[in-house]
């Protein structure tokens, strides 16, 4: 019997005895109270205590009864479950001789053996075991009354194979004598199926584990290959960085050599021989002075031919093609000045001598077309050629620095720039040239425009001065492009200067959002022509040579302005005169007229007064 059920029963008996004793005590106290009237306080207290004790004991009795009833119910359920489990499995019992004396319905249904086919027979015969090691082991255990757990294969009444899982427990009396045995013959086919499923699951687990390990190995190999590729890429990137650093160092060295060449340019140009020439496009009259005749090997100072036709005889074919393309805008009216470095080939001149040819339109017709072109020709050494080579080298090296290069002439105020320069501005190349006013107008902010113009004015007024500014440029996208504009002065020839500079995109300067007082009014734009002393220093460098070159052109300027039919034509003529005055300097003309040795050495006084009035008017403009 279950220990919990026995304990519950003993507890119920003890509580019953306690309840009986408590009830008797309560009755005795109650009887004593009735006999002693009026009751004393001691009797009353005892009666109340007895009644409380009876209530507690009755409560304990009720609790113990409930626990005992619950324990019995649990024991009954367990026995019922055991019986149900035994009834679902084949069960047999053996007598003292080892014969079957009872078999349940599950065994009969399993083996299809009933009654005479089971009772009184050997266990091996009933299970349908063939002659095998398992049958011998079973018979030995039955003969000696031993416990046994055995897996074997038998058959039913019709010879169908059956798998058995036997568990035999011997039954003995108090003196350990053999009384029989209980045999539980479980169906071994379920165990075989479970074993097969277990083996299948184990094989699947093995395959999954192997596939996972193969995947990990492949992933590890792929990671190693990527690491090697990354290492090779990093090595290649380091090599590219080294090559870029080397190229940058070479570009800086070329820049240093450029500065050295530019510094020696002035000395080379001072030693150059100079001559002047002019062409009348209406009469095709070419006039050369003595120096030009000597340099190009011309036999006469006055030649009649198509414009520039004699240059084809004096220059090599390659240089003539280059010069023709360079000076074509002068004839087309799209440019006011050009220059080129060429070599001679004519007999009588030094073979291979380099010449620096300059040309400028000095007279226009009523239709606005060029009528007269004048210029200079100079024999130069390696300094000018080095300048051209270094200029091309600087343009070729701009890709390494990501910057655009430009050159600004002092008199013409025309920018000669590389394609990268126009790419940064978002404008067409325009033949590689751009006016200074157009560049200033490209700046997006008025304050920065004033700063750029003032920087140029200061550079024009003082020698050996450049500028370094950060400017916002207008773009087609709306947002300004911030660039750094740096320029340094370089001497071209005696009394002439130019600025070489770079234009490089930079990040937008950080803005400081703090409360600031009202901005001060912007200073007015200072025109260098208003400062007469600065204008005289700037315009007086070319006294003599430029006046000898351009005096005939100035003779026609008052006539052009005076003969204009409309206000628009007068303004157009005034603009051409102003451009020529700014390019070549107005203050040098009066002295230049005295030194002119052309066709009209003596000028009428009225014409001289008119020319002086025009010069004074443009100086005051």
TrEMBL record:
Keyword Transmembrane: yes
Annotated TM spans: 50-70
Coiled-coil parts of chain: 206-242
Claim: Glycoprotein is one of the keywords in the record: no
Start and end residues of each PAS domain: 78-143, 263-332, 392-457
SUPFAM superfamilies per the UniProt record, alphabetical: PYP-like sensor domain (PAS domain) (SSF55785)
Cited InterPro entries: PAS, PAS-like_dom_sf
Alphabetical UniProt keywords: Coiled coil, Membrane, Transmembrane, Transmembrane helix
Protein name: PAS domain-containing protein
């Amino acid at each position: 019997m279950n220990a919990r059920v026995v304990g519950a029963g003993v507890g119920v008996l003890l509580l019953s005895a306690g309840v009986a004793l408590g009830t008797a005590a309560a009755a005795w106290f109650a009887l004593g109270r009735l006999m002693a009237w009026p009751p004393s306080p001691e009797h009353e207290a005892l009666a109340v205590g007895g009644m409380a004790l009876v209530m507690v004991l009755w409560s304990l009795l009720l609790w113990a009864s409930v626990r005992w009833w619950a324990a019995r119910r649990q024991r009954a359920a367990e026995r019922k479950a055991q019986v149900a489990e035994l009834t679902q499995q084949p069960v047999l019992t053996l007598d003292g001789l080892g014969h079957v004396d009872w078999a349940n319905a599950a065994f009969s249904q399993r083996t299809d053996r009933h009654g005479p086919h089971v009772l009184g027979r050997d266990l091996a015969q009933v299970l349908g075991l063939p002659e095998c090691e398992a049958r011998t082991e079973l018979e030995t255990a039955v003969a000696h009354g031993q416990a046994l757990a055995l897996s074997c294969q038998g058959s039913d009444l019709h010879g169908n194979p059956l798998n058995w899982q036997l568990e035999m427990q011997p039954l003995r009396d108090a003196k350990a004598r053999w009384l029989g045995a209980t045999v539980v013959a479980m169906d071994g086919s379920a165990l075989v199926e479970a074993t097969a499923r277990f083996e299948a699951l184990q094989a699947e687990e093995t395959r999954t584990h192997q596939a996972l390990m193969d995947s990990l190995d492949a992933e590890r190999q792929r990671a190693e290959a990527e690491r090697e590729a990354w290492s090779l890429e990093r090595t290649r990137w380091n090599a590219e960085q080294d090559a870029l650093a080397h190229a940058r160092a070479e570009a800086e060295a070329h820049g240093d050599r450029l500065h050295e060449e530019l510094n020696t340019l002035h000395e080379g140009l001072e030693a150059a021989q100079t001559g002047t020439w002019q062409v009348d496009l209406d009469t095709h009259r070419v006039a050369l002075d003595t120096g030009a005749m000597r340099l190009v090997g011309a036999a006469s100072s006055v030649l009649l031919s198509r414009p520039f036709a004699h240059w084809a005889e004096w220059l090599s074919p390659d240089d003539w093609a280059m010069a023709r393309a360079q000076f074509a805008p002068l004839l087309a009216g799209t440019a006011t000045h050009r220059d080129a470095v060429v070599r001679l080939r004519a007999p009588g001149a030094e073979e291979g001598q380099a010449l620096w040819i300059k040309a400028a339109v000095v007279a226009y017709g009523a239709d606005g077309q060029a009528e007269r072109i004048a210029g200079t020709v100079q024999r130069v050494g390696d300094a000018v050629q080095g300048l051209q080579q270094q200029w091309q080298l600087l343009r070729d090296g701009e890709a390494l620095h990501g910057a655009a290069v430009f050159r600004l002439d002092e008199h013409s105020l025309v920018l000669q720039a590389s394609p990268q320069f126009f790419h940064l501005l978002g404008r067409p190349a325009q033949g590689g040239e751009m006016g200074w006013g157009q560049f200033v107008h490209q700046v997006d902010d008025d304050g920065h425009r004033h700063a750029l113009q003032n920087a140029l004015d200061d550079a024009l007024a003082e020698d050996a001065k450049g500028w370094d500014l950060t400017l916002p440029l207008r773009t087609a996208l709306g947002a300004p492009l911030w660039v750094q504009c740096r320029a340094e002065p370089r001497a071209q020839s005696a009394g002439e200067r130019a600025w070489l500079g770079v234009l490089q995109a930079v990040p937008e300067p950080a803005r400081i959002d703090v409360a600031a007082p009202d901005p001060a009014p912007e200073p007015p734009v200072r025109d260098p022509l208003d400062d007469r002393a600065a204008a005289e220093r700037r315009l007086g460098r070319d006294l003599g040579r430029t006046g000898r070159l351009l005096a005939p052109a100035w003779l026609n300027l008052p006539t052009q302005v005076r003969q204009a039919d409309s206000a628009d034509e007068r303004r157009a003529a005034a603009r051409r005169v102003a451009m020529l005055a700014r390019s070549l300097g107005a203050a040098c003309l009066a002295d230049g007229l005295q030194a002119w040795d052309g066709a009209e050495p003596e000028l009428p006084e009225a014409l001289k007064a008119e020319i002086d009035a025009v010069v004074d008017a443009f100086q005051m403009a």
